Amino acid sequence: MSSKKDVSVRRNFLKKTLIAGSVVGGAVTSKIALAQNSESNFLVVDPWTKTQGSGFINPPYGLPSKYEKNVVRVLPNPVPTFPTGSRTPLQSLHGIITPNGLVFERHHAGIPDINPDQHRLVIHGMVDRPMIFTMEDIVRFPSESRIYFLECSGNSAAELKKATGKTAQEIHGLLSCCEWTGVRLSTILQECGVQSSAKWALAEGADGAAMTRSIPMSKMMDDALLVYAQNGEMLRAEQGYPLRLFLPGFEGNMSIKWLRRIKLGDAPWQTREETSAYTDLLPDGKAEQFTFAMDVKSVITQPSGMMKLKLKGFYEISGVAWSGNGKIRSVEVSTDGGKFWSQAILQEPVMDKSLVRFRFPWVWDGAPAVLMSRAVDASGDVQPTMDALLKAKGANIFYHNNAIQPWRVAANGEITNDR
Amino acid sequence: MSSKKDVSVRRNFLKKTLIAGSVVGGAVTSKIALAQNSESNFLVVDPWTKTQGSGFINPPYGLPSKYEKNVVRVLPNPVPTFPTGSRTPLQSLHGIITPNGLVFERHHAGIPDINPDQHRLVIHGMVDRPMIFTMEDIVRFPSESRIYFLECSGNSAAELKKATGKTAQEIHGLLSCCEWTGVRLSTILQECGVQSSAKWALAEGADGAAMTRSIPMSKMMDDALLVYAQNGEMLRAEQGYPLRLFLPGFEGNMSIKWLRRIKLGDAPWQTREETSAYTDLLPDGKAEQFTFAMDVKSVITQPSGMMKLKLKGFYEISGVAWSGNGKIRSVEVSTDGGKFWSQAILQEPVMDKSLVRFRFPWVWDGAPAVLMSRAVDASGDVQPTMDALLKAKGANIFYHNNAIQPWRVAANGEITNDR
């Protein structure tokens, strides 16, 4: 229990810091207990301090605390007959890095079991010297490490028709961010001698779907990577072990996992996954194809759907923002459903095509509220409302939902998806 | 097998890029096979492409590929009767992030099993308002996320007397780097009202050792964090779940894990762990105490001890550099045991008190070589040779070995610790 004086001190502090526009200071008006000014009260020794720790050394490869057993990837709700993806628990994460065990999955024929010693990458087509590379060859090339987000183009798709998901994970969890390490693809393509006629590349996976996509050569010669490591260690099986393509900022499925082949040509291949899927039906009946970059987007993760604010007072609103078109320039936050917007603080470093963590100080007065975030990227693109998105793209779109996510806070503190 | 023409082309390419001082290009003269210019040769379908993947969706919390089962934390070699630490496999890692499962461990009484709902942080001593915080209180404060290295002050210690470790992991593996999220300690201390007489803080862990260290208030009010998350997810048990102190750049043991108490006072407490340990015996018989910051250091991780270069030709030398005193300014690499030094490329972003990945292109001609890296930090401090370190500090030191690590490459390609 806080003393009256203490609450008053903290209120003044909060008022001062908020008036000054600072979020460095802050105050929590909840259950902070003022200790008696005697050591005996709080020098109670907990049971875990009285014994030797149970696990003297953790397993060779460690796992999360047992108390965090609910922080896991989840399947869509309801679970489909043949699930093809799992989602990252955005509402439980902090900062920008997604730990490898929680990176979202999207497979087109499950996870192949590839022996890295037998895996090969073939580069052929419009090159002077077609080549086959082993993994041993590839890791000898000059490498680079970059922190990039990865988002499925179908992320948040179910929300376009009506509100379906309840949590940030259910709605937006086909999104992760890792430090990826590999070889700049242009380095290896130069070894093969790119012919001037080559305008497109076909990338093919070694999974049962032989997942294939056509990619403009401009991207392949720019920042495309042949990735073999994520967050320091080798790729996880479900992320393409031992080798994947990585196209920073592009829709996730194009960063072909279990990459076995790149063919250069002068036109796109019109593969199954760029004709029957990953296109959008426009109002005029035509299909919008080759929508590569993931547009500017953000979502508030704390607090968010299915959480409950137990008490009035200070909360830090926090979330992530990203753009496939470059850096995030700014994020604004509204707590009144979009009438009034304020600048959030962006956590440094703000990197190209990476998640950016934003934070905004908020004092909840106990009245109903609607929390929203709106990101702007370096190109000046502004994250749209759902109405604006549907007006621009028509009601039939499925991919590339980058609309603003509103979270409704009820007077009892319960938070729901306000779509 | 490479064709003669192909090898020649690549040699010219290498020569050009090296003369131009570029490491963006590169060439591998090993086993790259020139495919016949017919698709039939490399469109062989692998077994894993012919079937549905075995694990359709990975477990809710994923693990590394079974082919990476040797990339684990290890105990010291030989294993002590009561092991108190495990080491990060630096030679198998890429980039700067250490995945949580591989972050090094150092415990003084094992890993306590703390229920986060029962955990409390007490702040008392020279404060106006002593307080007790629950975890629920703490996560409501304004937070920040930073990528910082963490190094045990005893890292590399065994090397001071003679060469003992064989791999980068065995020698230098008490080193990791994560994105840490928590509350700036100064925010919470300000809530408690720091009295002007407070010059030192005592931080105490809730483990069986009740690990305690004295920390200058200047650090506590600067960049010290109350950390509850690492690499996105909540702290691992072995890293202090649910709450640890984090003192960027300071020796690891001071970032008290399982933090239960902070007391402010006007002088250090002279605890067991700052008198009987974590001090160094100087030549004049006095103990050097309170050596907080980890000095500028670097180590080549690829290639490194116990690896073997199978073929002559191009290799990328790569490693990590860090300094507890700030940013890394530059890293130089020598391949001739320190006679000639060249600038390595630093991977952006170069962050304060974070690991930095450096890279250097090298063509191995098959002759014996000694690979070394030498880091310089923003304060101008230069990583010393072992001789210089011992000359400056005396032969009895145990902690803070930041000497240059030489790796000897034999004519047969085998790499050994050249200490």
UniProtKB/TrEMBL annotation, chains A, B:
It comes from the Bacteria. One of its GO terms (molecular function) is molybdenum ion binding. Residues 291-405 form the Moybdenum cofactor oxidoreductase dimerisation domain. Its cofactor is Mo-molybdopterin. PROSITE patterns: TAT. Residues 108-270 form the Oxidoreductase molybdopterin-binding domain. The keyword Oxidoreductase applies. Keywords: Metal-binding, Molybdenum, Oxidoreductase. Gene3D superfamilies: 2.60.40.650, Oxidoreductase, molybdopterin-binding domain. GO terms for biological process: sulfur compound metabolic process. This is Sulfite dehydrogenase.
